[in-house]
Amino acid sequence: MTNTIEDIGDADVILVTGSNTTENHPVLSTYVKRAVKFKNTRLIVIDPRRIKLTEFADHWVRPNLGSDVAWINGLMHVIISENLHDREFIDSRTTGFDDLKAMVEKFTPDYVESISGIPAGQLIDIARLYASANAASILYCMGITQHTTGTDNVKSLANLAMLCGNLGIPGGGVNPLRGQNNVQGACDVGGLPNVFTGYQKVTDEAIRKKMEKAWGVSNLPEKAGLTVTQMVPMAHDGDIKAFYIIGENPLVSDPDLNHVEKSFRNLDFLVVQDIFMTETAQLADVVLPSACFAEKDGTFTNTERRVQRVRKAVQAPGSAKEDWEITAEIAKRMGYDMVYGSGREIFEEIGRVTPSYAGITYDRIDNVGIHWPCPSKEHPGTPILHTRQFSNGKGVFHAIDYIPPAEQTNDQYPLYLTTGRVLYHYHTGTMTRRTDGLNERVPENFVEISAADADKYDLKDGIPAKITSRRGEITAKLKISPKAPQGAVFIPFHFAEAAANRLTNAALDPVSQIPEYKVCAVKLSKAG
To answer: Which end of the chain is more exposed for a tag (fewer CB within 10 A), N or C?
Structure first.
C-alpha cells in the first residue's frame, strides 16, 4: 500500500475494486465502513458481485468480468474531457500524459458500456465523484491482479490516481490488499525469482557483488529464476525433477489442477514443509513438520508495509522446527554452513543487506511496527510513499489498450466463472477446515448463480450441480443468490473435494506470470 490502513479514514472518496473486502480483509474493511458512516466519506464499489460492501456504497456498478482496463480508461476519458484532472501534479511529477490522453480518447462512456456493461451515465457520475475529491483512495485485491491483463489493470489504476494527483497525500494512494499474512514481507526479503532482498535485481552486477560479499560466496546467478507457474509445466515435461515446497498447497490453489496433478506425479522427488498434512504433502516423498506463527519468534510485514514483531506463545508439537532452522540445517548438509542463533540474527542480516529495512531493529519495533522504507536508525519510517517524488523520479503514465480475457464463452460453455473466498475459510482451508465452528458455518463448496440464470438452465436452489470447463469438472451445491451477476457464477476455492481450480484457466499474465483465476468459461447441469 502506498498509504496506511488508518489513512483510509482520511479519504474523501474510496474506490474499491476487485476486493470482497468484508470477507477477505474483515479488519481492514471496518476502516472503510467507519469512514463512510462517521466521516461522510463517499464510497465507490466496482465489482461484478453484490458483495456486502455495496450496502455502504454511494455508487456500485457491475463490470463484465475482465473489463477493468476499459472502465478505468473510461473514467480517465471523462476526467480529461471535462478538464477535471490535476494539471499541476501531472506537469510537475509525471511523464507520458500525452500518450495516455491519446489512448483513452476512444474510451467514451458509450464505448465502455459496450465492453464493460457499466451504464454510460453511471460511469460519468463515478468519474466526476472520484475527480472531485481532495483525496481519493483506491483499494484493490486479486480481482484486479488475477487476470492475463493483471499488470495492465494495476498500471491503469496507478494512471487514474496520478491523473487526479492522488499519490503522496494523506487519504490518497493506490493500495493493494495482500492476500496472505506476510506475503508482503516474503516479497520484501527476496521471495521472488528475479530479485534479491529489497527488490534488488539479480541481473545487476553491482548488486550481485554486494550480496556475494555480504554472504561470503561467489558466482551468484546472473539470470532471474522461474516462477511457480513456469515450473509446474516444466515438471510435466520432465525438465524439472524435484520440488521443495514450503507453506504452500498448490494441489488445491493452482489453476487447471488436473494438469498440475500430472505434473507433480511426474517429479522424481517432492519435499513439503508445512504445519499440516495438506493435499500436496500427502503426495510428498518427504514431509518436514514446521512451526506455525504462534510457535516462533520473528517479524511479519503486513499489507501497509509495517514491519512488526511476532513472539513465540507456545512450543511447537513433536519434532516440528522453525522454518529457518530447517532451511539452515539442509543448507549445512548440502555444503553451505548457514549458521544462525535466532530469528533476531537473521533480521539483523536483513537490515544489513536491505536498504529499505536498514533502520529497523527488534528494539525499535518492540511495541509498535515501522513502515518501510526506513533507511537509518534515526529515520521514523515512511507511512505514505511518494510524498515528494517517485522511486525513479517522475511517475510514468502507461497508455494501455483493452485486451479481452483469454477465454470466452460460447454455446458449449455459456457462463463465466470467477473464484474467490468466503469469510469463514482461508485460502486452501489448511487451517480453517480443521476448525469445527467454521465448518459448521460453511461445510461444503457451492456454486453461486443468479436467479435468472438458474431459471434459464432449469436449476433449483440447493441441488447438486455439475460445473464443467474445458479442463475439468466438479460437483457443488447450487446457491441462487442476488450476489451473482447474470451470465457469471462464483465458486470459492477452499474445498479440495470440489476444487474450483480444476476448472480455472492457467493462461498467464505475460509480465507477472499470474494465472487468470478470475475468468473462465463453464457450463452447469444437474449432477447425477
So the answer is: C
Residues 6+ apart with CB under 8 A from 24: 141, 177, 179, 420, 421
Contact 302, 310 (CB under 8 A): no
Q: CA-to-CA distance for 490 and 230, rounded, in angstroms?
A: 27
- How is residue 226 annotated by DSSP? -
Q: Whose CA is closest to 104, among 397, 507, 467?
A: 397
SS percent in the chain: helix, strand, coil, step 5: 35, 20, 45
| 160-205 tens-digit pLDDT | 999 999 999 999 999 999 988 899 999 999 999 999 999 999 999 9
Show Cβ contacts of residue 195 under 8 Å, excluding neighbours closer than 6 positions.
Answer: 201, 202
Strands 174-176 and 136-140: parallel
Of the CA atoms within 13 Å of residue 445, those in its CB half-sphere come to 25
Residue whose entry in the numeric block shows the C-alpha cell 476502516: 31
CA distance 252 to 499: 6
Amino acid present at 177: L
Report the distance separating Cα 63 and Cα 487, nearest Å.
Answer: 12
Which domains can be identified in the chain, with CATH numbers?
A: 6-177 (3.40.228.10), 179-222+290-377 (3.40.50.740), 226-278 (no CATH), 415-526 (2.40.40.20)
- Cα separation of 192 and 207, whole Å? 16
Judged by DSSP in three states, 485 sits in coil
Q: pLDDT tens digits, residue range 499-528?
A: 999 999 999 999 999 999 999 999 999 997
Nearest to 289 by CA among 249, 339, 243, 326: 326
User: Which among 22, 291, 19 is positioned nearest to 142, based on CA atoms?
Assistant: 19
CA–CA separation, 443 vs 424, rounded Å? 10
Which candidate, 73, 148, 69, 131, places its Cα nearest to that of 103?
A: 73
Do 490 and 419 contact (CB within 8 A), yes or no? yes
Helix (H, G, I), strand (E, B) or coil at 173: coil
